[in-house]
């Protein structure tokens, strides 16, 4: 289809997807950009292009290593304690409620803590400036008709939109910018061992790092799904020449990344998993048994024990992401004229991977509408055709936060299911209505009951 003069091609053929994401990567390095992203969002790795993207990805890869994530695990557990306390009240009252709202608050707390170095309790203190600004950040998307206009006539609309005054945007950016700069100034005054071990600190540590890695180590998604636990890419590959250090604007941009890349997707994954467990009580029972066994063996969950000790939880999450992939489509832009399986693709074309369609194709997934975690046993995964399951994308530009995203979802479900079970109630919407504004999400929340165990 066309938007103005720009051609979009939607593909769901696995071999063609492989060519775009992996084999022809040098022609398809970038996602589609509207040209409208402004600082600090534009400085986040999601929107960087070509050489600078490669340099920044290379530096950031170390901030997402299993060792670093292990250091962040207690911060996530801390935020989870607040969530547990809020859910306890619902369990005691026996009332039905929208758990998506609770997950929204929880994700805000995690982002504040892990990315912005600030502690908040958004459920209890919704008036906190951080919480307010996050809400406004998500409510401030570009109206659809304007977006179509921008994509159709970028040469006129982009410069226009950039210079038009936008008080709300400027105020939001300045709030987050100031917040991060203040935290960084404070860290500079602290001794190394006093500094909080959060993502912001990992990025600050990595910014001058010589231990950056080359493009051949970028595909973390493949490493994760081949079940490497302690593999640190920077240990496996020869470090490259250090790239240009991250500027202060770029550090701020990476903290923003959490808001735009992680927040909504993690919230939605948790909501979908909760809905599926409540509506599939047999699967939930089996999972509860696994959780109890895990807790008997492990006092405090660590990154590595979480990777190995909860195989059924892995299967439940994988099947949740198959049925409801929050990033249900993503794009690459053709940098030059090229050919894909005999089809000519002109330079500038945007190729869109139709992940939602792929995950519901009965040729790859028999009875695609059924929730069946057995599709993800090790054996079933070995037999599956490659490039038919893409919740995190694939290739060198695939999700950089896959380990962190899975860690957050697993750790949260582990904590919740240790204390509660999910139950459907008359208010539960079955089947779940969906909405696909930015990420795929439940349209009307997820109403359930929680019962103490
Ligand atoms: C369940 C959770 C998550 C899912 C399903 C998910 C999914 C995705 C998908 C589909 C993409 C596009 C991949 C492509 O273009 O091939 C992506 C990119 C990305 N994600 Fe995630 N994501 C998750 C969590 C996170 C988290 C928590 C972070 C960390 C902040 C994160 C950081 C990123 C980054 C940085 C990119 C862009 C990488 C680049 O351009 O080099 N993601 N993610």
From TrEMBL:
Cofactors: heme
SUPFAM superfamilies: Cytochrome P450
Catalytic activity, EC: 4.2.1.152, 5.3.99.5
UniProt-listed InterPro entries: Cyt_P450, Cyt_P450_CS, Cyt_P450_E_grp-I, Cyt_P450_sf, Cytochrome_P450_3A
GO terms of biological process kind: long-chain fatty acid biosynthetic process; prostaglandin biosynthetic process
Keyword Transmembrane attached: yes
Pfam families assigned: p450
Entry's localization field: Endoplasmic reticulum membrane
Keywords, comma-separated and alphabetical: Endoplasmic reticulum, Fatty acid biosynthesis, Fatty acid metabolism, Heme, Iron, Isomerase, Lipid biosynthesis, Lipid metabolism, Lyase, Membrane, Metal-binding, Monooxygenase, Oxidoreductase, Prostaglandin biosynthesis, Prostaglandin metabolism, Transmembrane, Transmembrane helix
Reaction catalyzed: (15S)-hydroperoxy-(5Z,8Z,11Z,13E)-eicosatetraenoate = 15-oxo-(5Z,8Z,11Z,13E)-eicosatetraenoate + H2O; (15S)-hydroperoxy-(5Z,8Z,11Z,13E)-eicosatetraenoate + AH2 = (15S)-hydroxy-(5Z,8Z,11Z,13E)-eicosatetraenoate + A + H2O; prostaglandin H2 = (12S)-hydroxy-(5Z,8E,10E)-heptadecatrienoate + malonaldehyde; prostaglandin H2 = thromboxane A2
Top-rank lineage group of the source organism: Eukaryota
Residue positions binding heme: 399
Membrane topology per record: Multi-pass membrane protein
Transmembrane segments: none
Family from the record: Belongs to the cytochrome P450 family.
Subunit organization: Monomer.
Its job: Catalyzes the conversion of prostaglandin H2 (PGH2) to thromboxane A2 (TXA2), a potent inducer of blood vessel constriction and platelet aggregation. Also cleaves PGH2 to 12-hydroxy-heptadecatrienoicacid (12-HHT) and malondialdehyde, which is known to act as a mediator of DNA damage. 12-HHT and malondialdehyde are formed stoichiometrically in the same amounts as TXA2. Additionally, displays dehydratase activity, toward (15S)-hydroperoxy-(5Z,8Z,11Z,13E)-eicosatetraenoate (15(S)-HPETE) producing 15-KETE and 15-HETE.
Protein name according to UniProt: Thromboxane-A synthase
């Amino acid at each position: 289809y066309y938007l103005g003069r720009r051609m979009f091609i939607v593909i769901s053929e696995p071999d063609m997807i492989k060519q775009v994401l992996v084999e022809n990567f040098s022609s398809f390095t970038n996602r589609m950009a509207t040209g409208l992203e402004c600082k600090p969002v534009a400085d986040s790795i999601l929107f960087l292009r070509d050489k600078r993207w490669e340099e920044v990805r290379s530096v950031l890869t170390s901030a997402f290593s299993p060792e670093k994530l292990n250091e962040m695990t207690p911060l996530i557990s801390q935020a989870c304690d607040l969530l547990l306390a809020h859910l306890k009240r619902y369990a005691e009252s026996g009332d039905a409620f929208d758990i998506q709202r609770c997950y929204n608050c929880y994700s805000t707390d995690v982002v504040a803590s892990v990315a912005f170095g600030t502690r908040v309790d958004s459920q209890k203190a919704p008036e906190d400036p951080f919480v307010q600004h996050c809400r406004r950040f998500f409510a401030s998307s570009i109206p659809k008709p304007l977006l179509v206009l921008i994509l159709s006539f970028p040469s006129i609309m982009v410069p226009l939109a950039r210079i038009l005054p936008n008080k709300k945007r400027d105020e939001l950016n300045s709030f987050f910018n100031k917040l991060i700069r203040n935290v960084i100034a404070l860290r500079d005054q602290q001794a190394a061992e006093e500094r909080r071990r959060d993502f912001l600190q990992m990025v600050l540590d990595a910014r001058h790092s010589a231990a950056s890695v080359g493009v051949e180590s970028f595909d973390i998604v493949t490493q994760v799904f081949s079940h490497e636990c302690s593999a640190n890419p920077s240990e496996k590959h020869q470090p490259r020449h250090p790239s240009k250090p991250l500027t202060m604007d770029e550090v701020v941009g990476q903290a923003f990344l959490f808001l735009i890349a992680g927040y909504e997707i993690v919230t939605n994954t948790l909501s979908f998993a909760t809905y599926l467990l409540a509506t599939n009580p047999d699967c939930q029972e089996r999972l509860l048994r696994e959780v109890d066994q895990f807790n008997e063996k492990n006092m405090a969950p660590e990154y590595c024990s979480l990777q190995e000790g909860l195989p059924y939880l892995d299967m439940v999450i994988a099947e949740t992401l198959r049925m409801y992939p929050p990033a249900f489509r993503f794009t690459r832009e053709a940098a030059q004229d090229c050919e894909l399986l005999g089809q000519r693709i002109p330079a500038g074309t945007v190729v869109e991977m139709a992940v939602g369609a792929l995950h519901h194709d009965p040729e790859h997934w028999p009875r695609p509408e059924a929730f069946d975690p057995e599709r993800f046993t090790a054996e079933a995964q070995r037999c599956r055709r490659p490039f038919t399951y893409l919740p995190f994308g694939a290739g060198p530009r695939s999700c950089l936060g896959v380990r962190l995203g899975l860690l957050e979802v697993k750790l949260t479900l582990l904590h919740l299911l240790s204390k509660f079970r999910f139950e459907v109630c008359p208010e539960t919407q079955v089947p779940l209505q969906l909405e696909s504004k930015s990420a795929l999400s439940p349209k009307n929340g997820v109403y359930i009951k929680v019962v103490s165990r």
